[in-house]
Amino acid sequence: SQKIEQNSEALNIQEGKTATLTCNYTNYSPAYLQWYRQDPGRGPVFLLLIRENEKEKRKERLKVTFDTTLKQSLFHITASQPADSATYLCALGDDSSYKLIFGSGTRLLVRP
Amino acid sequence: GAGVSQTPSNKVTEKGKYVELRCDPISGHTALYWYRQSLGQGPEFLIYFQGTGAADDSGLPNDRFFAVRPEGSVSTLKIQRTERGDSAVYLCASSSTVGNEQFFGPGTRLTVL
Fold first, then answer.
1. Are the Cβ atoms of B41 and A104 closer than 8 angstroms?
2. Regions of chain A where pLDDT drops below 70
C-alpha cells in the first residue's frame, strides 16, 4: 500500500536559518504533491502544489522540490521566523481519484 | 462564505449513539472532501464529492459511516452506533475543482465516551 514518510521528530532551528523538511513516499506514482501548514486546533492551510513534471516551485520564502526518481519532496523555508513554527504536512494526489494521501507531518520550531 | 465552516466544533456522545457532522463549503466549490485526523497523525481520507455524487468513498472505514451532499453544497457526515475508536477530529475541505488546492474547515472534534 502507499506509504508517506515525514520526519516524526520535531525540527528545531534558529530564527533566520533555512528549514528543510523531507517527504518520502513508496508504492505510489503521484501526479502532484501538495504541502500544507497546520497550527494546533486548526485545519490545514494550503501552501504549495508541485506537479510531477515540475522540479521546483517557489513562493516568497518557500521552495519545494519534487524528485520522482528518488520519490522525495523537499520543502524549504528560508529566513525562518518564529511565526513559521507549526506542523507541515505533505500530501500526494493523482488525476484518477483526486483524493489526497497525507503524511503524518513534521513539527517545526523556530527559536527567536 | 469566507471559508469552510463546520458544525458543531465539538461533539461529545456516548457509545452507540448516532451523530451528524455538518460542512458548509466555500460557495461555488464543486469538490468537497471529508477527512479524519487522530492526534499526531495526518488527515486520513474518508470520502469526496464532485457535485452531489460521492465520487470516491473508499476511505469510509465501515458501513456505520455515511455522507450526503444532496444539493451540491452543504454536506453531512453521519455516523451510526458510534464507537470509542471513532473519536477524532473530522475535517472537511472544498476545492474549486478536483485536483486543486483544498481549503479546510476548522474541524469537528468528536469524542465518544
1. yes
2. none
